[in-house]
Design a protein that fits this description.
Number of helices: 20
Strand order of the largest sheet: 1-2-3
Largest sheet: 3 strands, antiparallel
Low-confidence stretches: 1-7, 9-70, 441-456
Mean pLDDT: 79
Length: 498
């Protein structure tokens, strides 16, 4: 399929959320929810609802005021124990299929079936959380927990949603370390899973681009956001720190949106003037300089900082966290092999959990590298707490406050530009995964000719696996597609790579 086909307006009208903002979660949801028409057939009268203001009550539960009447009458009031059990058994244990499936599960059960809140209110709440860093499904669980049992209920609901995946990832991390990379059968399965993960990342990058780069009013690509994505990818090739690129293009797009062309042009030029001065005085940046260097070694303190920084900067959801941790652990710190990092993404796709739970695996392996199993389990716990902590803070702080912040005109445009630039970061990381998994290196021989023959012989089936997986992901948009691909790939690997 061509690029024009990917962004065809008629296709986008069906797929970008014109019918329902929640069908394709993306980072520009706050704009989409205002300018599109949600499906109101399920509402009692099918009419649009008047404007509302979100606040938090003294008990900590968020409320929506509409002519002085609360909109929380259908929300059941539960004890903290009841909140935990409800979210653990209804959502935590069934969080298969990634962010889209998880959000649809919450929407179907709590909005369409149980009618805790109206559909339009759900869309407005989701639009706010969509533009902020962190996994959206986790933040929505916390929001509903706040509705039922106040702020502590929000904390408990988020914890209950994360807990099953966290426990399973701890177990998977331990079993992975026991199996070892020297086990031929173990390696064969994961060699087949790596190109499947690369295909999943490619599909996810396209999904994100549909929302981050497409104008929801015209259903065409916004050229300035596309330029932000491309320039951020080029900056990665120049080894410019990704956080500098994200901030720069956030500001540039804020200027562009307000028609401050000269300011935008000057800011664009200044970034490369600054880069030129750096090269002149310090030399060309190293290949790992685009990372912050917050985890040069996987000590428990560094793992906590890595998780916290990632949690605060993962605009666009869980997929944005992947290049951030990859840059620190694999490229800058070099304490986690690329193949192991890709394996952890594969594992995170076969357990019911937010995708961000892959950080638990990274923390486990990092702690093990630093101090054996003594730090492996604490490392997994610490990085998990740190990466989810920003989501808890932002959500529990109050939806009303967050809504006012993200609806600030300048900040709204800044977030749009930043999220457009994020596509470039994710695309570069995806390309690295693809090259590693399809063209990958083998370590079975010291003979260069033999190594080349082995790499080619394994690269060809890996490329075929990647193309089949990618075609399947485009053909079947089901929450179990990824899970079935992972299982099938693990079995196929026994025939392809032994």
């Amino acid at each position: 399929m061509s690029i024009s086909g990917f962004f065809n307006p008629e296709v986008l009208a069906e797929r970008t959320g014109a019918r329902d903002v929640i069908e394709r979660p993306g980072v520009r949801g706050i704009t989409v929810s205002v300018r599109t028409k949600p499906n109101l057939d399920i509402e009692s009268q099918g009419a649009e609802e008047p404007a509302r203001e979100s606040t938090f009550s003294n008990s900590g539960a968020p409320e929506i005021k509409e002519s002085g009447i609360s909109d929380n009458s259908n929300v059941p009031k539960m004890s903290l124990t009841g909140v935990f059990w409800f979210f653990f058994t209804n959502f935590g244990l069934f969080a298969w299929g990634g962010p889209v499936a998880q959000i649809m599960l919450l929407k179907t059960q709590l909005v369409l079936k149980d009618r805790w809140i109206s559909l339009s209110r759900f869309q407005r709440v989701y639009a706010v959380y969509q533009i902020l860093p962190g996994p959206e499904a986790t933040k929505l669980c916390m929001f509903f927990g706040c509705l039922s049992a106040g702020r502590l209920g929000g904390v408990v609901a988020g914890f209950a949603f994360i807990l099953p995946g966290f426990l399973l990832m701890i177990l998977a991390s331990y079993l992975y370390s026991l199996a070892g990379l020297k086990n031929d059968y173990f390696n064969a399965s994961f060699k087949a899973l790596q190109p499947i993960v690369a295909a999943m990342m490619l599909r996810a990058t396209h999904n994100m681009a549909e929302h981050s780069l497409v104008d929801p009013t015209t259903l065409t690509i916004n050229p300035f956001l596309l330029m932000a994505a491309i320039c951020t990818a080029l900056n990665s090739a120049l080894h410019i720190n990704i956080f500098i690129s994200l901030a720069v293009y956030g500001v540039i797009y804020a200027f562009v949106a307000r028609r401050l062309w000269i300011s935008a042009a000057l800011f664009f030029i200044l970034q490369y003037v600054g880069f030129g001065l750096y090269v002149h005085f310090q030399g060309f940046p190293s290949s790992v300089s685009f990372a912050l260097g917050v985890a040069k070694t996987p000590s428990l303190l560094h793992l906590f900082i890595l998780g916290l920084v990632t949690g605060f900067l993962s605009f666009g959801g869980a997929y944005t966290a992947i290049p951030l941790i990859h840059g620190e652990a694999v490229l800058r710190g070099a304490w986690l092999p690329q193949s192991v990092f890709i394996d952890c993404l594969a594992i995170s796709n076969i357990i019911p959990a937010p995708l961000t739970i892959f950080a638990t695996f990274v923390g486990f392996q990092g702690g093990k590298v630093e101090n054996g199993y003594k730090d492996a389990f604490p490392g997994a716990i610490i990085i998990t707490i740190a990466i989810f902590l920003p989501s808890f803070i932002m959500t529990i702080a109050g939806h009303g406050l967050l809504e006012r912040v993200v609806q600030n005109v300048f900040l709204s445009h800044f977030f749009d530009g930043l999220c457009g630039a994020v596509i470039g970061v994710v695309a570069v990381t995806t390309a690295q995964f693809l090259l590693s998994s399809v063209g990958g290196k083998s370590s079975g021989s010291d003979n260069s000719d033999g190594l080349t023959v082995k790499s080619v012989s394994q690269g060809a089936p890996a490329a075929v696996v990647c193309m089949i997986a990618l075609a399947t992901l485009y053909k079947y948009d089901n929450k179990y597609t990824g899970l079935l691909l992972i299982i099938s790939g693990a079995i196929a690997g026994q025939f392809l790579f032994l």
